[in-house]
Amino acid sequence: MIGANGKCELKEPLLGNSSSTAVSLPETIQNGDDKVRSISFKVNGITCASCVISIESALGGLNGIRSVMVSSLQGQAVVKFIPELIITKAIKEAVEDAGYEVEDFPEQEIEVCRLRIKGMACTSCSESVERSLLMVDGVKKAVVGLALEEAKIHFDPNVTDTEHIVSAVEDAGFGADIISSGDDANKVQLKLEGLSSPEDATIIQSSLEALDGVSSVDLDWKENRVTVLYEPDVIGPRFLIKCIEEAGDSSKKFHASLYNPPNRRESERLVETQMYRDQFLLSALFSVPVFLFSMVLPMLHPYGNWLDMKVYNMLTVGMLLRWIFCTLVQFIVGRRFYSGSYHALRRKSANMDVLVALGTNAAYWYSVYIAIKALLSHTFEGQDFFETSAMLISFILFGKYLEVVAKGKTSDALAKLTDLTPDTAHLITLDQDGNTVSETEISTQLIQRNDIIKIVPGAKVPVDGIVIDGQSHVNESMITGEAKPITKKPGDKVIGGTVNENGCILVKATHVGSETALSQIVQLVESAQLARAPVQKLADQISRIFVPVVVLAAVVTWLTWFIPGEVGLYPRSWIPKDMDAFELALQFGISVLVVACPCALGLATPTAVMVATGKGATQGVLIKGGNALEKAHKVKIVVFDKTGTLTLGKPNVVSAVLFSTVPMDEFCDLATAAEVNSEHPIAKAVVEHARRLRRKYGTETEQIPEIRDFEVHSGAGVSGKVGKDIVMVGNKRLMRSFGVPISDEVERHMTEVEQLARTCVLVALNGKIIGAFAVTDPVKPEAGRVIAYLHSMGISTVMLTGDNWATAQAIGKEVGIGRVFAETVPSGKADKIKELQLKGMTVAMVGDGINDSPALAAADVGMAIGAGTDVAIEAADIVLIKSSLEDVITAIDLSRKTISRIRLNYVWALGYNILGMPIAAGVLFPFTGIRLPPWLAGACMAASSISVVCSSLLLQSYKKPFHVEYA
């Protein structure tokens, strides 16, 4: 058996039967530190001991196999192997090549890990990281988020591990740190005290491994830390700590506490911000004197005359000082650009660092050439560009500093969500009578399933749970966006991170750790921020050729100005004083190099998606990635389910009518027996009403009759046998499908009921209708206004329901939906959506996320409404946490605003390049004398990225376009 950590958890031989034949191979691998895994599978065709030997021989010849045990009686094999040397597929093929059939072979195991990536500057960088990861054997999928600076990797742990994955990123020239791995959900790290020797560590490890529910224990006694992987249904962190403390004796006391690693994301963001700030200040320290010596002091006579003093030959004091200060900037402060360029070119790509390195080096080395020529000549007078190189680096670093600060703001909404959970909680111990025995303040991370937590007024709810005692109002606005406090009484659910306003309540924990709604929301938003939106494809395609095109444009610009200048095709007066044609052309070429920035293009989409998904989460709308965000803005038709979506989803029976001589108590018994096994909301309403009538017309002590041959007829009803009688409960379609006649009296009653927007549930006994229930499900108060607002947005609406036509039409008329499709089975809903899509419509489906899963999956945009605490609905693209229909409008409007913002970001990003590059190339110079010096071009380059990020940040001010005020 393989544990969740991939290690062999085999406590005793799997093939321990005395009649089995087991052969152990000698160890073929010398390194005892290699990771060993174990797999077990069935082998058909084993008839004797010679078959066992054949399989042993076939596997024994493979490099990486540690041992093989084969049972001839059970036809089963257990193989221990080193995944770094052999993959499981090779083991299976070896057995099959030996002439045996393999069954129950473990499917390929896929794990997921997330990495923090350091050093990415543009889309080219993120694509390089992605390519490097996909080249690693065993990596199945890799997604790299530029704005989030993270990567999510799906890999086969039998082939590779996180160490190889991190190495691949580092080989590509970027830094990488592990954020989480696949088994982190049920893993706890504990800090140990009282250990003095490896023997102490062995005692603790053995004690923990002996506990039920503990999958693996990794103890580092030098660091006094232990990591435990456990089953949350069986055991929890508190019991692990208790076990460690009980492992000691009177002479040796052990103590354990939770170990919380520092928030690396925030600390790294702070370090990065400080790094860019410090680099900019250091660069400015040297660049400002260069600027003063070249542009300010020479104009202030006689204060700047000392700069023209000769040091040797024509080399002046000013030129020498500029050379010294610029060298410090170029090679100390600007070292990061050399490093980035080297790694980019080594992976056969180009990024912003390449452009900056080319531009600054061109200016610097030409200036060095001028300085050396002045040093060696008695008559040479030339103009250096040392200030160009120094100021260019300073402006770019200042721009990167502002960009990092702005990018940190894009994840503010998500950071606020993660900080909602309180640090401590009050754990209550109750006796059998429900009286409080003890109250202890514990860390929220130590809460286990089924714990009783006391929540006082003003305190935050630490985990998801159910109220078991007390009554209060809870503010859920931070999770659902609903400002009005919600009444909570025994039996109601509460969500972790919400605030208890007035009463004191006792809550039984049902979801803890990564299972809570808040954790799932954070996970969904983080996944959404990593996913690439289709609109980003344009930026990715442009970025692949961006830098080579810019370099080519810079060379063409230089030649265009240099050659005509040398042959006199434009007036000498165009060339500034103290310059020649070569120097003028060089400045134009450098300006073209540095004005174009691929960073802004790469940040246009992901920063907007980050802000929008985070903002949506705080409004109770969870958007699962850029793809859903982009599709939602194209929606032209919204399809609504009826029950639980347009209606409250809490049906009530308002009347029961008999059409036969069957007594009311017997009628109720038959209906209850048939419907009690159904999960449909209408069935539950029928059972509840029938039981109330039974108490009214008969005795309460009688047992519900047992039903046999129970069958659910999708979209129609249920049937079965009660004793010798055949009972059917359902709609008109069910009765007709079984040939049950419907009399005029029944038809008249059904018509009357359905015209009142109620559902008529018929009950038949042995092929004859004996009675009916009238069921009503009130329409949500906001439904009509939401439908009207969608129509004002140019979006048409449709209702799909399994209910009868008359009721569906009545509901549709009440809320304002003209197109209604009724009596539709769940699978038929998906077909109806496909019909609408064939007409060229982008369709959104709004359903309750349970029986509407096929339709949600078939729609272009699936919206699961009323998810409550179970927010991780796979079929939906967008999860609407609360049950309000207004969030349908919010989701579509937020999508439209975000796509509009992304397009505006592209205008900012491409606008700087489209307008800046011609100006930098000197298009305006012949007519106006305006040119863009390289240092000013560098400032424009930095401004493009900053403007894009700030543009995305404006989405933080998004407000819902439509809000329903409830009475």
Structural write-up:
This protein folds into eight domains: 37-103, Alpha-Beta Plaits (2-Layer Sandwich), CATH 3.30.70; 111-180, 2-Layer Sandwich (Alpha-Beta Plaits); 187-261, Alpha-Beta Plaits (2-Layer Sandwich); 265-417; 428-511, Calcium-transporting ATPase, cytoplasmic transduction domain A, CATH 2.70.150.10; 534-608 and 896-957, no CATH class; 621-647 and 779-893, Rossmann fold (3-Layer(aba) Sandwich); 652-776, 3-Layer(aba) Sandwich (Calcium-transporting ATPase, cytoplasmic domain N). Strand 34 (843-847), helix 27 and strand 35 (861-865) form a beta-alpha-beta unit. The model is unreliable at 1-34 (pLDDT under 50). The protein is built from 30 helices and 36 strands. It is an alpha+beta fold and 967 residues long. The longest helix is centred in the last third of the chain and has 35 residues, at 886-920.
What's this, in brief?
The two termini are about 60 Å apart.
Q: State the domain count.
A: 8
Strand order of the largest sheet: 24-36-35-34-25-32-33
Shape: globular
Task: Please state the CA-atom Rg, rounded to the nearest Å.
Answer: 36 Å
**Could you say which structural class the secondary elements and strand pairing correspond to?**
alpha+beta
How much β-strand is present in the residues?
Answer: 15-25%
Task: Summarize the main sheet.
Answer: 7 strands, mixed
What's the count of strands?
36
Number of helices: 30
What is the helical fraction, as a range of percent? 40-55%
pLDDT below 50 for ≥5 consecutive residues: which ranges? Answer: 1-34
Distance between the termini: 58 Å
Mean pLDDT: 81
Family: Belongs to the cation transport ATPase (P-type) (TC 3.A.3) family. Type IB subfamily.
Keywords: ATP-binding, Copper, Copper transport, Ion transport, Membrane, Metal-binding, Nucleotide-binding, Repeat, Translocase, Transmembrane, Transmembrane helix, Transport
Organism: Kalanchoe fedtschenkoi
EC number: 7.2.2.8
